[in-house]
Design brief:
Layout: H1 3-7, H2 9-17, H3 27-41, H4 49-56, H5 60-68, H6 74-88, E1 94-104, E2 114-118, E3 123-137, E4 143-150, H7 154-157, H8 160-165, H9 177-190, E5 197-200, H10 202-205, H11 208-216, E6 221-225, E7 230-232, E8 238-239, E9 255-256, E10 264-265, H12 266-272, H13 274-277, E11 282-289, E12 292-307, E13 318-319, E14 323-329, E15 336-341, H14 349-356, H15 360-371, H16 383-410
Parallel strand pairs: 1-5, 5-6
Antiparallel strand pairs: 1-3, 2-3, 3-4, 6-15, 7-10, 7-12, 8-9, 11-12, 12-13, 12-14, 14-15
């Protein structure tokens, strides 16, 4: 980008934020949104309220009230963001990305905080966790975050007085993360978002009920699953008819026949079953990395997952509809990954692997939101303030994603490769350091 193009970004930002004006009843709220977003895009080292307000020359209490007490429809702002993506960025090769991110916090007053696994520190730590939904083009031209939802642990949901102290609504209860992910998907679909594919890690793929729900909804997915995931390579026999007997309790139907093979772990199936064991490995080029092409070897077979009907007991399971089981191994490190997909029988292994290894898009989105926009810098404790901060950050990130896409189009479809540094006098804000839009760490939207 040249100096003239950078100078126009301020106008682009104002025109972009005008799309959210109807989410605010008063002009003050609209201006506060602009100030908050400009603060997130600034070169302030810590993107929490007080440093951003000081940089903008305004009282910190103004931005604090914007998150906590001011009346504005942040739910509508989220819907508007998703509608913009649906109107301008949908493509035939779209991927939905489900993942979670964590924010280390001290104390016990922040909504949802407790000791749990924290990906930011890589250990059990005191933190807040959110479930996120991302959107990406399989070609890598566009990616953004569509939603963040705060995860409420059971320890919080069981203590309503503690919830009220953190302004958590009474109707908000504990839901497993996979159920939150389904809620995010339902909202995105309601706003016109359609995913050709959906992918997620084994934290969600380990839940057979989640996979079966997605399959019933008609959503094609490629899910990483743990090695202890159970299923069948050979379809077991299922009895459908009720046979009357005068002895004992009537048996549940449909059910597995007594002579059917038991479901087995995927690691054992891939090691000992001749369907996978005798199949040769194939090399697949996944993508080009910083150190050269990334290649994995893989093989696949048709597969049925072990599904437990909703009205059945703990030991009552049935096979799912036919799916894919893919085992992939890194030739250098020996790392092994297992994937399950409900793609059609004619889908190529290479295509499913490209989807499975596309989760880096949402990881990059989280990285950019934290490193550039201060997603994890919030110091508020109440539920509504945290959710509003998350949504405004997603809005800021969408602006960066649109700028990046514009630069790709101007470069003739080539991915934009920023230089090591940018001149500070070419930034939107005059300061000693470059603006966030012009730093090397930017989401490839820098000059």
């Amino acid at each position: 980008m040249d100096v003239r193009q950078i100078s126009r970004l301020a106008g682009d930002l104002d025109r972009f934020l005008c799309l959210f004006d109807d989410c605010f009843a008063r002009s003050e709220g609209r201006e506060h949104l602009r100030r908050y977003v400009r603060g997130q895009l600034s070169n302030v080292r810590r993107k929490c309220v007080e440093p951003m307000a000081d940089d903008l020359g305004m009282p910190p209490r103004t931005l604090q009230d914007f998150l906590t007490t001011h009346t504005w429809d942040w739910q509508r702002a989220l819907d508007r963001l998703q509608e913009l993506v649906a109107q301008s960025h949908l493509c035939e090769e779209s991927i939905g990305l489900i993942d979670e991110t964590s924010f280390p916090k001290r104390g016990d007053k922040t909504a949802g905080v407790q000791r749990q696994y924290c990906g930011a520190t890589g250990k059990i730590d005191n933190c807040v966790v959110t479930v996120g939904l991302g959107y990406a083009d399989l070609r890598g031209r566009f990616r953004c975050t569509l939603d963040h939802r705060l995860f409420l642990p059971e320890s919080w949901a069981g203590d309503r007085s503690r919830c009220r102290e953190a302004s958590i609504p009474d109707e908000l209860t504990h839901r497993p993360k996979w159920q939150i992910a389904l809620e995010l998907l339902e909202r995105a679909r309601g706003n016109g978002i359609r995913f050709s594919w959906l992918t997620f890690d084994e934290g969600y793929g380990c839940n057979a009920q989640f996979l079966e729900t997605l399959h019933r909804q008609g959503q094609t997915f490629v899910a990483e699953v743990p090695k202890s995931f159970f299923g069948w390579l050979v379809e077991p026999k299922v009895l459908q008819k009720l046979h009357h007997s005068h002895k004992g309790r009537p048996m549940r139907y449909p059910r597995l026949a007594a002579q059917s093979a038991k479901s087995k772990r995927v690691d054992r199936l891939c090691t000992y079953s001749h369907f996978m064991r005798d199949q040769p490995w194939q090399d697949f080029h996944i993508k080009n990395g910083h150190k050269g092409p990334i290649v994995w070897k893989a093989k696949a077979s048709r597969f049925r997952i072990n599904v437990r009907p909703e009205d059945a007991g703990r030991s009552f399971t049935l096979p799912s509809a036919p799916m894919w089981l893919i085992v992939a191994q890194h030739p250098s490190t020996g790392e092994i990954k297992y994937f399950v997909s409900n793609a059609s029988a004619t889908t190529s292994i290479e295509r499913m692997l490209h989807v499975a290894f596309s989760r880096w898009h949402i990881e990059r989105c989280f990285q950019d939101e934290k490193g550039l926009l201060g997603l994890d810098h919030f110091e508020c404790r109440r539920y509504r303030a945290i959710q509003r901060h998350l949504i405004v950050t997603v809005i800021s990130h969408l602006f960066l994603a649109r700028i990046r896409l514009k630069q790709i189009d101007m470069a003739g479809g080539k991915k934009f490769d920023p230089p090591a540094a940018a001149p500070s006098d070419a930034c939107l804000h005059s300061s000693e350091k470059p603006h966030a839009l012009c730093t090397e760490r930017n989401v490839e939207a820098c000059c």
